[in-house]
Protein backbone atom coordinates (compact mmCIF):
# COMPACT_ATOMS: atom_id res chain seq x y z
CA UNK A 1 0.00 0.00 0.00
CA UNK A 2 1.31 3.48 -0.78
CA UNK A 3 1.83 6.03 1.98
CA UNK A 4 -0.83 8.20 0.35
CA UNK A 5 -3.33 5.33 0.68
CA UNK A 6 -2.71 5.21 4.45
CA UNK A 7 -3.62 8.90 4.67
CA UNK A 8 -6.62 8.64 2.31
CA UNK A 9 -8.05 5.32 3.51
CA UNK A 10 -6.94 4.69 7.10
CA UNK A 11 -6.91 8.24 8.46
CA UNK A 12 -9.13 10.63 6.47
CA UNK A 13 -11.20 7.73 5.13
CA UNK A 14 -12.17 6.81 8.71
CA UNK A 15 -14.40 9.88 8.86
CA UNK A 16 -12.85 10.78 12.23
CA UNK A 17 -9.78 12.61 10.86
CA UNK A 18 -10.19 15.64 8.59
CA UNK A 19 -6.54 16.35 7.71
CA UNK A 20 -3.46 14.18 7.96
CA UNK A 21 0.16 13.75 6.96
CA UNK A 22 2.88 11.15 7.38
CA UNK A 23 6.35 12.58 7.99
CA UNK A 24 9.57 10.60 7.75
CA UNK A 25 11.68 10.82 10.90
CA UNK A 26 14.70 11.43 8.65
CA UNK A 27 12.80 14.36 7.13
CA UNK A 28 10.30 14.95 4.37
CA UNK A 29 6.59 14.44 3.88
CA UNK A 30 5.74 10.89 2.80
CA UNK A 31 2.06 11.69 2.18
CA UNK A 32 -0.60 14.25 3.09
CA UNK A 33 -4.26 14.97 2.57
CA UNK A 34 -5.05 17.52 -0.18
CA UNK A 35 -4.22 21.08 0.83
CA UNK A 36 -2.64 20.06 4.15
CA UNK A 37 0.83 21.53 4.10
CA UNK A 38 3.24 21.63 7.02
CA UNK A 39 6.06 24.15 6.64
CA UNK A 40 9.67 22.99 7.06
CA UNK A 41 9.71 24.72 10.45
CA UNK A 42 6.49 22.94 11.52
CA UNK A 43 7.87 19.58 10.37
CA UNK A 44 11.03 20.15 12.42
CA UNK A 45 8.94 21.10 15.47
CA UNK A 46 6.79 17.95 15.09
CA UNK A 47 9.88 15.73 14.99
CA UNK A 48 11.53 17.47 17.96
CA UNK A 49 8.32 17.27 20.04
CA UNK A 50 9.09 13.61 20.80
CA UNK A 51 12.65 14.26 22.02
CA UNK A 52 11.71 17.29 24.14
CA UNK A 53 8.10 16.84 25.32
CA UNK A 54 8.53 19.54 28.01
CA UNK A 55 9.13 22.16 25.32
CA UNK A 56 6.00 21.29 23.34
CA UNK A 57 3.97 21.14 26.58
CA UNK A 58 5.07 24.69 27.39
CA UNK A 59 4.77 26.25 23.94
CA UNK A 60 2.17 24.19 22.05
CA UNK A 61 2.53 22.97 18.47
CA UNK A 62 1.83 24.69 15.16
CA UNK A 63 0.36 22.64 12.29
CA UNK A 64 -0.43 24.14 8.87
CA UNK A 65 -0.39 27.62 10.39
CA UNK A 66 -2.74 26.76 13.28
CA UNK A 67 -1.48 26.73 16.87
CA UNK A 68 -2.62 23.91 19.15
CA UNK A 69 -2.39 23.93 22.93
CA UNK A 70 -0.59 20.74 24.03
CA UNK A 71 -2.64 18.57 26.39
CA UNK A 72 -0.05 15.80 26.77
CA UNK A 73 3.26 14.80 25.25
CA UNK A 74 5.64 11.87 25.64
CA UNK A 75 8.13 9.96 23.48
CA UNK A 76 5.31 8.28 21.50
CA UNK A 77 2.32 10.64 21.31
CA UNK A 78 1.48 14.34 21.40
CA UNK A 79 -2.11 15.51 21.80
CA UNK A 80 -3.18 19.06 21.06
CA UNK A 81 -6.39 21.09 21.22
CA UNK A 82 -7.62 24.28 19.55
CA UNK A 83 -11.17 25.20 20.55
CA UNK A 84 -13.36 22.21 19.62
CA UNK A 85 -10.71 20.80 17.28
CA UNK A 86 -7.65 18.73 18.04
CA UNK A 87 -4.44 17.19 16.79
CA UNK A 88 -2.89 13.78 17.32
CA UNK A 89 0.78 13.11 16.57
CA UNK A 90 2.12 9.57 16.94
CA UNK A 91 5.68 8.38 16.35
CA UNK A 92 6.41 5.00 14.79
CA UNK A 93 9.83 3.44 14.13
CA UNK A 94 10.46 5.48 10.97
CA UNK A 95 7.63 7.99 10.66
CA UNK A 96 5.34 10.39 12.50
CA UNK A 97 1.59 10.39 11.87
CA UNK A 98 0.05 13.87 12.07
CA UNK A 99 -3.75 14.03 12.19
CA UNK A 100 -6.28 16.76 12.87
CA UNK A 101 -9.92 16.29 13.76
CA UNK A 102 -12.65 18.92 13.86
CA UNK A 103 -15.78 19.21 15.97
CA UNK A 104 -18.16 17.46 16.38
CA UNK A 105 -15.56 14.65 16.30
CA UNK A 106 -13.92 14.31 19.71
CA UNK A 107 -10.53 12.94 20.80
CA UNK A 108 -11.91 9.54 21.96
CA UNK A 109 -13.21 8.95 18.42
CA UNK A 110 -10.11 10.07 16.48
CA UNK A 111 -7.32 8.88 18.77
CA UNK A 112 -7.87 5.09 18.29
CA UNK A 113 -7.80 5.59 14.50
CA UNK A 114 -4.37 7.25 14.57
CA UNK A 115 -2.88 5.13 17.38
CA UNK A 116 -4.16 1.95 15.69
CA UNK A 117 -2.46 2.81 12.39
CA UNK A 118 0.73 3.64 14.30
CA UNK A 119 0.61 0.25 16.05
CA UNK A 120 0.17 -1.48 12.69
CA UNK A 121 3.08 0.41 11.08
CA UNK A 122 5.31 -0.40 14.06
CA UNK A 123 4.34 -4.09 13.78
CA UNK A 124 5.51 -4.18 10.14
CA UNK A 125 8.78 -2.34 10.79
CA UNK A 126 7.81 1.23 10.00
Automatic annotation (TrEMBL):
Protein family membership: Belongs to the profilin family.
Name of the molecule in the record: Profilin
Function: Binds to actin and affects the structure of the cytoskeleton. At high concentrations, profilin prevents the polymerization of actin, whereas it enhances it at low concentrations.
Cytoplasm recorded as keyword: yes
InterPro entries cross-referenced by the UniProt entry: PFN, PFN_euk, PFN_sf, Profilin_CS
Gene3D superfamilies the UniProt entry points to: Dynein light chain 2a, cytoplasmic
Alphabetized GO MF terms: actin monomer binding
Species the sequence originates in: Ceriporiopsis subvermispora (strain B)
Keywords (A to Z) from UniProt: Actin-binding, Cytoplasm, Cytoskeleton
Subunit relationships: Occurs in many kinds of cells as a complex with monomeric actin in a 1:1 ratio.
Compartment(s) of residence: Cytoplasm, Cytoskeleton
Gene Ontology cellular-component annotations: cell cortex; cytoskeleton
Amino acid sequence: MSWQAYVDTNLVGSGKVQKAAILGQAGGVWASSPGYTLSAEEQKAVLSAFTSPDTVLASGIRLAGQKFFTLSANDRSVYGKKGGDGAILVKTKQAVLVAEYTAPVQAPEATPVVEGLADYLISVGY
